[in-house]
């Protein structure tokens, strides 16, 4: 009987293992994972139907967003006027409000998914409990038989057929225990996978709620921009064109002033300190270049003349992402001291590969100075602050050793101090060389 006694000890140990670990959080309730109380009242089919309806609603809203975006693209090609600017602001607000509806639907869908996963977890926990009960019952049967010695069984029953049947039953019990243990392990593995999906859904929910809060902030900002424009122009086209002319003159004066200042800075660029081409990732999900960097001088574009960075189309606020791992070296808003003259809201990031970048004309900044960021992490949203003729994302790229945030007294904005990233002219680099190839 020793064989059965050893087998019994093995499964007693397994049983005790599962019974002891269940209350101590190896299989914690879902509420502890997602931080919400979830009702079990709905059936799995009802939950699936609601998820499918949310998917249909999201598709419908995304089609509406495409329509608004197409209208904005058409407006972007029209002559700059007060009516066009106001239409752009109105359309942008409508698109943002639809974005908010999409995000809210995604939040609702994710909550339903968590509820569905919770129901699945409940089923798996019940299955584990049933398997443990079954194993316990089979072990009890083994115990009952082994409490009697063979001699006692012979003396009490005197029927060898019964004895052999009991021994056969022991073998059958052993096989049932083995089968239940195998099934228990499979269900436990499925439970762990489902809990992993639940944690993933919870993280997605947190991100969606943050995105929703960002979108709501930008809607308020958009409304303020429209009201400010109407106040400045008194809803008059002549006043608007006068305002545009003044802003353009200020922009050109500041650009010349900044370039003259940066031309005096001395920096010896060591090409060996720069990384290889293609080391950065795209700052936006969808890429369309509206203005290239500098000018073509030899095999590469340089800042000998022309534009100090690369501009990407972003007619509505879009998430802007860090192009590599790095640290935020500075943030600011030049519009607070000299509206319409420079970057507007900007972020300077020093990457771990010898490059640094400025994101300019942002509508919203989501990071603080000194924060470490990962490749692809959202650091802000594109916009139309600073010196722009329309919303877009500006990306300037530098050799890290040459750029720093400085405060500069401005001549073009008399009596004002500008704080922004500044670098020697030869430290500016072509962003497109270090970004992935355009397809």
Automatic annotation (TrEMBL):
One of its GO terms (molecular function) is metalloendopeptidase activity. The chain crosses the membrane at residues 12-30. The keyword Membrane applies. Keywords: Coiled coil, Membrane, Transmembrane, Transmembrane helix. The keyword Methyltransferase does not apply. Residues 44-120, 174-218 form a coiled coil. Pfam families: Peptidase_M23 (PF01551). Residues 306-401 form the M23ase beta-sheet core domain. InterPro entries: Cell_wall_metabolism_enzyme, Dup_hybrid_motif, M23ase_b-sheet_dom. Gene3D superfamilies: 6.10.250.3150, Glucose Permease (Domain IIA) (2.70.70.10). Signal peptide: none annotated. It comes from the Bacteria. This is Peptidase M23 family protein. It comes from Candidatus Yanofskybacteria bacterium GW2011_GWC2_37_9.
């Amino acid at each position: 009987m020793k064989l059965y006694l050893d087998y019994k000890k093995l499964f007693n140990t397994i049983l005790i293992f599962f019974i002891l670990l269940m209350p101590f959080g190896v299989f914690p309730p879902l509420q502890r994972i997602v931080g919400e109380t979830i009702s079990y009242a709905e059936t799995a089919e009802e939950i699936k139907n609601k998820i499918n309806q949310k998917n249909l609603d999201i598709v419908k809203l995304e089609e509406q967003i495409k329509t608004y975006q197409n209208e904005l693209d058409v407006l972007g090609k029209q002559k700059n006027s007060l009516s066009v600017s106001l239409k752009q602001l109105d359309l942008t607000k409508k698109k943002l409000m639809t974005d908010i509806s999409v995000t809210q639907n995604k939040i609702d869908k994710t909550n339903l998914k968590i509820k569905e996963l919770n129901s699945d977890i409940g089923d798996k926990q019940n299955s584990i409990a049933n398997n443990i009960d079954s194993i316990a019952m089979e072990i009890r049967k083994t115990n009952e038989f082994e409490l009697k010695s063979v001699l006692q069984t012979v003396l009490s029953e005197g029927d060898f057929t019964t004895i052999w049947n009991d021994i056969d039953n022991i073998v059958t019990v052993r096989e049932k225990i083995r089968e239940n243990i195998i099934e228990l392990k499979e269900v436990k593995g499925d439970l762990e996978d489902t809990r992993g999906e639940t944690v993933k859904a919870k993280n997605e929910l947190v991100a969606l709620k943050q995105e929703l809060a960002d979108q709501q902030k930008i809607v308020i900002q958009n409304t303020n921009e429209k009201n400010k424009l109407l106040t400045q122009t008194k809803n008059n086209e002549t006043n608007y064109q006068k305002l545009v002319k003044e802003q353009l003159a200020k922009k050109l004066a500041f650009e010349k002033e900044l370039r003259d200042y940066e031309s005096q800075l001395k920096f010896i660029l060591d090409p060996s300190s720069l990384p290889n081409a293609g080391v950065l990732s795209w700052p936006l999900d969808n890429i369309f270049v509206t203005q290239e960097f500098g000018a073509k001088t030899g095999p590469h574009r340089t800042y000998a003349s022309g534009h100090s960075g690369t501009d990407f189309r972003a007619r509505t606020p879009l998430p802007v992402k860090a192009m590599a791992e790095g640290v935020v070296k500075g943030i600011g808003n030049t519009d607070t001291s000299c509206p319409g003259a420079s970057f507007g809201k900007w972020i300077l990031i020093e990457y771990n590969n010898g490059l640094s970048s400025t994101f300019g004309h942002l509508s919203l900044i989501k990071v603080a100075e000194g924060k470490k960021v990962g490749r692809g992490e959202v650091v802000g949203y594109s916009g139309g602050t600073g010196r722009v003729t329309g919303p877009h994302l500006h990306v300037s790229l530098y050799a890290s050793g040459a750029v720093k945030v400085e405060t500069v007294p401005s001549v073009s904005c008399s009596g004002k101090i500008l704080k922004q990233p500044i670098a020697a002219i030869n430290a500016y680099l072509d962003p497109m060389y270090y970004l992935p190839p355009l397809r």
